[in-house]
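Progress note, sequence design subtask.
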């Protein structure tokens, strides 16, 4: 009888550089909301010893340590959130909906609790996450196979690795989240050169959902271990009809005047205890399915955006904590991915698999390179080539504007119409500033207050 395998959960934590760039519903208040609803609850869970793997992008870390940023987050939690709930509750009472008003007043307490948690760590959220920061990523979450040059990839990857080493005392074991799992074999050598020893890939289209080959790490020709993520199980949580669609959970779409959500998915007034019961039941079901998946051995790697748990799925932190508990109760071996990799034999990278892959549409790069967003990708590549041509004369501000416009988020948000004009405005602003810097046009103070503060331009100049 085969020995049961292991399950690893990787939480990829990322936010584009929004500190100082606008307000609700995007801009920096998007980050403050993520801190309150996702990052602080996940920090609580990790502090209790949950064997989850945390990935932090350098661009998120830049913002969490930006001067004054967490003070503004605290003001958001202390002032804006209580007042917006109060105004909504007042409006509901005027409309004869006492039940909604009471739920809004109860929900406001989450922000009071978040403020207390933030103040308890002296406003140093990054310091609180530091003991758990196992994996890093590229500097600003660029789609690496869509960059124009090896030098451009090095600028992103090496600065990401260097910033992680410089920030965190714990020894980095080479875990690297490839942004959007966007992989093509030609980037493997550049990853290895930067000290990357393990990364996740999405091969569902190649192997097929549920195929046992998704449970085995792969040895790339140029060095890093490439770990397939298990889409069949991930979609139980992340799919359109996954657990978060359950009737008792908070409806993330129907909103009040001040952008609150006092309803459940089934249309009832939200009931916190009812939702918590469903989260515990779903967590038990998910642990059972994970145990079945690895009953015959292998490593089941489940990767999620940390922001799913709380920011997008209100009950996500409750579900995740219950899942960790249920794995222990059901005998599912839940492990940190770095600890697991040495226990599973790697297979060779599949012959002939040279096409780019990702966890975007059709597991291709279409999400970031379709006709709808081709102008973003093409102009970013052009800017990269012009930066490379500038050579040693390239100004650090121009390089930071290049990093900012290379972020994968702008094309992603534009592809799915998730943020109105915000992504195109942000991309265009960074491109305009980059062009002005290259033309030596005087600019005002850089709004990129703390992006890549220890930026190393040398990788851009390597052949």
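Output:
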């Amino acid at each position: 009888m085969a020995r049961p395998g292991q399950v690893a959960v990787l939480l990829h934590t990322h936010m584009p550089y929004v500190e100082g760039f606008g307000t609700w519903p995007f801009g920096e208040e998007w980050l403050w909301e993520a801190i309150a609803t996702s990052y602080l609850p996940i920090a609580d869970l990790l502090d209790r010893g949950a064997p989850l793997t945390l990935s932090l992008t350098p661009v998120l870390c830049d913002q969490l340590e930006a001067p004054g940023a967490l003070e503004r987050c605290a003001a958001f939690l202390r002032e804006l959130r209580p007042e917006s709930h109060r105004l909504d509750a007042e409006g509901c009472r005027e409309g004869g909906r006492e039940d909604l008003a009471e739920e809004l007043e109860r929900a406001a307490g989450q922000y009071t609790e978040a403020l207390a948690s933030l103040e308890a760590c002296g406003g140093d959220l990054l310091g609180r996450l530091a003991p758990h920061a196992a994996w890093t990523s590229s500097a600003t979450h660029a789609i690496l196979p869509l960059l124009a040059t090896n030098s451009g990839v090095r600028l992103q990857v090496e600065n990401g690795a260097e910033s992680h080493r410089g920030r965190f005392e714990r020894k980095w074991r080479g875990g690297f989240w490839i942004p959007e799992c966007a992989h093509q074999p030609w980037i493997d050598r550049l990853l290895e050169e930067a000290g990357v020893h393990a990364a996740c890939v999405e091969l569902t289209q190649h192997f097929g959902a549920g195929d046992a080959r998704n449970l085995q790490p792969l040895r790339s020709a140029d060095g890093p271990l490439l770990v397939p993520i298990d889409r069949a199980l991930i979609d139980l949580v992340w799919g359109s009809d996954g657990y978060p669609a359950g009737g008792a959970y908070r409806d993330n779409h129907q909103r009040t005047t001040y952008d609150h959500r006092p309803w459940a998915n089934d249309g009832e007034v939200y009931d916190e205890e009812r939702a918590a019961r469903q989260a515990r039941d779903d967590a038990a079901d998910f642990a059972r399915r994970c145990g079945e998946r690895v009953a015959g051995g292998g490593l089941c790697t489940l990767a999620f955006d940390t922001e799913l748990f709380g920011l997008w799925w209100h009950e996500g932190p409750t579900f995740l904590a219950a899942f960790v508990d249920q794995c222990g109760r059901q005998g599912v071996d839940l492990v940190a991915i770095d600890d697991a990799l040495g226990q599973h034999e790697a297979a060779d990278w599949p012959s002939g698999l040279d096409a780019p892959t990702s966890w975007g549409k059709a597991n291709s790069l279409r999400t970031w390179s379709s006709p709808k967003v081709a102008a973003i990708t093409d102009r970013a590549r052009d800017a990269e080539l012009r930066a490379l041509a500038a050579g040693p004369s390239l100004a650090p501000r121009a390089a930071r504007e290049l990093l900012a416009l290379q972020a994968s988020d702008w094309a992603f948000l534009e592809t799915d119409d998730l943020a109105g004009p915000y992504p195109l405005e942000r991309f265009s602003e960074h491109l305009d500033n980059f062009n002005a810097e290259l033309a030596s046009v005087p600019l005002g103070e850089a709004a990129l207050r703390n992006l890549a503060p220890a930026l190393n331009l040398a990788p851009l100049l390597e052949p």
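Residues 69-94 form the longest helix (26 residues). Work on this subtask will continue into the next period as scheduled.
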